[in-house]
Specification:
CATH architecture of the largest domain: 3-Layer(aba) Sandwich
Largest sheet: 8 strands, mixed
Oligomer: single chain
Structural class: alpha/beta
Helix content: 25-40%
CATH class of the largest domain: Alpha Beta
Number of strands: 21
CATH superfamily of the largest domain: Acetylglutamate kinase-like
Number of domains: 2
Number of helices: 15
Strand order of the largest sheet: 3-8-2-1-11-13-14-12
Distance between the termini: 64 Å
CATH topology of the largest domain: Carbamate kinase
């Protein structure tokens, strides 16, 4: 073990202790080579006093059972009509998988219990089609789940529920179950362990592979018709965040190290859908100066910024905003009022390990929002290395003479020949 890795993990423990995570695992993952390691990792989460609710899928097992019976299954993943034959196969497959999962958890010392805390009702007729034995979540018994979690017992929830009225078994989609349980419990995270690679390209000119997505982008991706499995996860991730879950992680569950690497590293290994991104932006404080200096030092070495002493940072700290995830400072931006309704954005920096995934754009949009509320109508940005970045955000190159006099003189004294960009952000009366 690398000691630095252990220290990195331990830095998260105080933040995660006592928090509630819903971990949702695709059935195919439970049949993969990663299964045994995943059990050990779940045991570790429980040992760290993280409250874990485990939801499992069974699409792969149901499909195999349907095939072995030689029947024509109507739906295997709980997203469409389920006829009686398919429901019978589903009950058998889910019961067997649940038994194997409980046995595996027991072997690694996890205290767990199968839970019927999710009750369902028939989905009925949708778009003119009778869904038969497909269920829709009716109620989540949060008290039952909280009692188990308070006792250090991991609730294990299957993709099959029972009607409160008839007791009839109905098939559910595990992604929907995870979302409903997380919402009911007020969970801090959902982690979806998918049965396939999680590589997401945004439909933008830069075609960056993204690891952190807003609700809006998650909705766009699920509407874009990716694989059925990932479409479901993006849809329920977006819904969960809209319901108050701060972060939803989607990772490749076939990688035996993916769960811990996603939870206990700043970079992560999958996709994270977050709620309001602006919640991660806050005013800088004096205690942030050492980390700001690290960010700024790299930019100074590359010629992107002029040197700033600690005293200068202390004097200007009220103009800075920082962006952080899980208490790790990942970026900063500064802004100031130049003259009347004219503002300037500056010192836009993002940690080198988190560039190209939207943090810079978010910080700029945040400043513009603050500037508009402050009565700004024009905002300037001076850049030596990435003027194209600002141009993609609606800024236009202008002559230095367009700057207010004092700022123009400061630019000339610096000798950096920064490109001057301007954006009209308010109504000009």
């Amino acid at each position: 073990m690398v000691i630095a890795d252990l220290r990195g993990i331990l830095s998260y423990v105080p933040q995660f202790r006592g928090r509630t995570f819903v971990v949702a695992i695709d059935g195919a993952v439970l049949s993969s080579l990663a299964f045994q390691q995943l059990l050990v990792d779940l045991a570790m989460l429980q040992s760290l006093e993280i409250r874990v609710v485990l939801v499992y899928g069974a699409a792969a097992q149901v499909a195999a059972e349907v095939k072995s019976r030689g029947i024509m299954g109507t739906n295997t993943d709980g997203t469409g009509p389920v006829d009686r034959q398919t429901m019978d196969a589903s009950r058998a497959a889910i019961a067997m998988l649940g038994s194997e999962l409980m046995a595996g958890l027991t072997t690694v010392g996890v205290r767990a219990s199968s839970s019927n805390a999710v009750s369902v009702k028939p989905a009925g007729i949708v778009a003119g089609i009778d869904q038969q034995f497909l269920g829709r979540i009716d109620k989540v018994d949060t008290r039952a789940l909280e009692v188990s979690l308070d006792e250090g017992i991991m609730p294990v929830i299957s993709p099959m529920g029972f009607s409160m009225h008839s007791g009839e078994a109905l098939r559910m989609n595990s992604d929907a179950v995870a979302q409903a349980v997380a919402r009911a419990l007020g969970s801090d995270k959902i982690v979806f362990l998918a049965e396939e690679p999680i590589a997401v390209e945004l439909d933008r000119d830069d075609q960056q592979v993204s690891v952190e997505l807003s609700i809006e982008v998650a909705n766009h991706l699920q509407a874009a018709g990716r694989s059925v499995n990932l479409t479901s996860k993006f849809r329920h991730a977006a819904k969960a965040c809209q319901d108050g879950v701060a972060r939803v992680h989607i990772i490749d569950g076939r990688d035996p190290d993916s769960l811990l690497n996603e939870l206990f590293s700043h970079e992560g290994v999958g996709v994270m859908v977050h709620a309001d991104a602006y919640q991660g932006i806050r005013p800088a404080q004096t205690k942030d100066i050492p980390e700001l200096q690290i960010l700024i030092h790299s930019a100074i070495e590359e010629g992107d910024l002029l040197p700033r002493s600690q005293e200068e940072l202390e004097a200007q700290i009220s103009n800075f905003r920082v962006f952080e995830i899980d208490a790790a400072l990942l970026g900063c931006v500064a802004f100031s009022k130049l003259d009347g309704d004219i503002w300037e954005i500056g010192c836009l920096l993002v940690n080198s390990g988190h560039e190209g995934i939207g943090h810079g754009r978010m910080l700029v949009e945040y400043v513009e929002h603050v500037a508009i509320r402050g009565g700004a109508k024009t905002i300037f940005a001076l850049s030596t290395k990435v003027p194209e970045f600002f141009e993609r955000l609606g800024y236009s190159r202008v002559e230095p003479a367009e700057l207010p006099k004092i700022r123009r003189e400061q630019r000339e004294v610096s000798g950096r020949n920064s490109v001057v960009l301007r954006k009209v952000i308010g109504n000009s009366d």
